[in-house]
Predict the 3D structure of the following.
Amino acid sequence: MKNWKDKIHLDTTFKSKPLFVSDNAFGLFFEMEKKRCVYFKPLNESFSSSLHENSKGTLLYFEREFIEEDDEEYALDILSLFKRSPEGVFQITAKEFPGIVMVLDLIEEEYNTQENAYLILKSLLKVLLLKLIRQLHNGYLKQDVHQKRVLLFLQLMERHYLQETSGGYYAQQMGISEKRLNQILKDKLELTAKQVIQERQVTEIKRMIKQNAITLKEMAFYFGFESLSSFSRFFKRHTLKSPSQFKAEFEP
């Protein structure tokens, strides 16, 4: 694939906290010298606050489509890995550590190869992620018809979450009842449709506040809230901070 380096980035000389990578990218930061742990950046979010400014390690991030092109059967495992990891970080066991280092070395070798590295990189990234999934979740999610339903819901939600915030809309599009959709999502993601949609709204609000492109009042109406106060209550309920408090953290 041409321009494959636009979809995956590797930095083995990183010596400070990775404050920003693409919103539409998963991020991994391997701190291998002292703690021997890995930090996660889910889609549309930031790295864990426990990742310090003076951390040294390997930074790897990859666009969502890089893994979804032909690995759909593992997509939920990967989403689960990034979303449900405790505090966005976990310790790599002594048993798994040598294998993780070996795969990272192979990824670095292929990343620095200018030609014909795309398919090999995808395969190595899959091995790396499956190793992390195996350690954190003690196995892989059971493959069944509901996997595809969850993925369909997530794809629909990504396109419509600004306009459609009711689980009933997505259930109708999928040809199942809202009750059944919530049962499937609770089983696979431990969240209802409304909770997933609200999580996505909150992460997008955070991203827009960081960009500081529009006012909080404009943002409230952009997300369909009737007033700035209702928008503020919604954000604080999910983050324990008001939008203005969150915004102040990113002002010089």
The radius of gyration is 19 Å. The chain has two domains: 4-137, 145-248. The first strand starts at residue 8 and ends at 14.
